[in-house]
Amino acid sequence: MASKARVLYTFEAQPGSGELNINENEFVTSVFAFRWEGKNARGETGLFPATYVEDVQDVSSPPPVSAPIYPSIPGIAAHADLSAQSSWGVQAAAAPAATAPAAEAPGGDWDDEWDDDSDNDQEQEKPRGGAVAGAADKRTDTLTSASARSQQPQQYDSMMGGSQALATGNQASVKGNLNRFSVFVKSGTENYLLGKLKAHVPDGSYVVISETEWGPMWGTNGKAYTCQILSPKKESKMKGLKTFIAYQLVPSFNGVQVARRYKHFDWLHERLTEKFVLIPIPPLPDKQVTGRYEDDFIEHRMAQLKLWVNHLCSHPVLSQSDVWQHFLTCTDEKKWKVGKRAAEKDELVGGGFFLSTKAPSKGITADIDGEMMAFSNFVKGMDNGVRFVHTTAAENAKRHIGPFKREYEKLGEAFRTLGQAFDQDPIKYSSGLTEAIIKTGETYEGIGRLFADQPRYDTDPMLDTLHIYRGLLASFPEILDIQKRTAQKMKESEKLADAGKLSMTDLTQLRARSDVVSYSVMAEMNYFHQARSASFKSMMENYLEQQIKFYQTIVDNLKQSLSAYRDL
């Protein structure tokens, strides 16, 4: 059944993708609620991220809605999953149980599941948060009175359900959101806030957030290390029927080499994305179907994987995660399978990860909404800047390979033609000049080849870094949406407490869990600033160094060509 929704954020469709352009504050009609295919005000039909809209009761007379805490972030969700946003105007249903991990095929090499000739790029939507929901998830709580609901139809949905005592008298615990496809719900964050997640946290698995002069920061639980990627090799199995490229990883803390295929990286990316809902995971290099094993492609993918691995090694949380350490160190096939199953059955994923997060006991006193708004504006501006540089640099690289190369080679050919014409002089009156002109032509043809080859040294590394950050930036709208909805639950629960409809015990517990989410978001924001400063410094230094080296080579070649005339 079609439903109406108001657009919270502008979304720019990618050409040819079947997506739909939607603009902030316009109303759309969703045709299929689960796929979020809809029609905009201009009558155009297509797909759009459901997190960019919110349900309304009627387009002609929309119910009161609170203004968004954060400004719109257009165009950033190109790489984000099409997942739906929480609905605050409908009585909630019980949260779904976490999806059980897929059963592993018995016997055989675990690699068989991920051969290069059996790619499957489709990902199934499934709830995250492997921790088991507590008893509070199994009971039916009483909502506010009918009179209060008639006066404020949208206020008290999905707020507080974590108390172990049943609501009695004039107190009420409010159930979760009806929209099971919102990131807030699907990630398990809502269940965590409601106190419904229970899981054992092993010793040494806690992540600590500390207050610093720069604000909340992730604590460092281990020594810093690096990881090299060496010697990509084309390997085969089943007597050559299946081939793949294996990359050799060597972490600095043990020097032991492990071989990993691209499909292993793909599996790891899925695990990390599922586990760390508030930490953006950088995108992997794009897949290539044709020309898969060309040398240039293999070398470029290795360079991209180096950036990806470096990002994980430098992140204080990701670098110490069990699944990453297992990926980086395991050399035994049996132990690998055990670790693989453990990662896929991990309870501390999504919202469950917050159970293993220790935030400062002091409540947040900073203007959290103001900080989120400032960061949202920064993300929007940086995303626009990164996209602009990426597009401009890519176009410049194409001109190097195409027009620049052709023009210099054409000029060189013209000089050579002139020299060859002079060479037809039977007297050879100016043989030195003739030879110098021919050499000049060869010099310009060589400059053309230099232009064509140059992007691999300066532009390609820059584009690889920008690719990483385009993916990271694309993750922040969902992260900020989770924080936004966490703040909304906190504010609405305070209203319930003021009205005597929520106990102070429940309010205190929800506030503590809300602070863990907010501290986590702020810690990741601060780390992002730290990481992007180092990354872009390195990127710009390499670009300018390679540019100087490139033009210096051209100058040296031209000087050598000039000397031929000076020596006549």
From TrEMBL:
Which residue ranges have biased composition labelled Low complexity? 93-106
- Enumerate the spans annotated as SH3 domain: 1-58
Which intervals hold domain PX?
Answer: 225-335
Keyword set includes Membrane = yes
Where is there biased composition of kind Polar residues? 142-157
Q: What Pfam families does the entry give?
A: BAR_3_WASP_bdg, PX
Top-level taxon of origin: Eukaryota
Which InterPro entries does the record associate with it? AH/BAR_dom_sf, PX_dom, PX_dom_sf, SH3-like_dom_sf, SH3_domain, Snx9_fam, Sorting_nexin_WASP-bd-dom
Positions of the region Disordered?
93-162
| Chain intervals with Acidic residues compositional bias | 109-122
Q: Which GO terms describe its cellular component?
A: cytoplasmic vesicle membrane; plasma membrane
Q: Where in the cell is it found?
A: Cytoplasmic vesicle membrane
Q: Which UniProt keywords apply?
A: Cytoplasmic vesicle, Membrane, SH3 domain
Protein's name according to its UniProt entry: Sorting nexin
Alphabetical list of Gene3D superfamilies matching this protein = Arfaptin homology (AH) domain/BAR domain, Phox-like domain, SH3 Domains
By sequence similarity, the record places it as follows: Belongs to the sorting nexin family.
Query: Where does this protein hold a 1,2-diacyl-sn-glycero-3-phospho-(1D-myo-inositol-4,5-bisphosphate)?
Result: R261, K263, R301
List the molecular function annotations (GO) for this entry: phosphatidylinositol binding
Q: Which GO terms describe its biological process?
A: endocytosis; endosomal transport; mitotic cell cycle; plasma membrane tubulation; protein transport
Q: Which residues form a coiled coil?
A: none
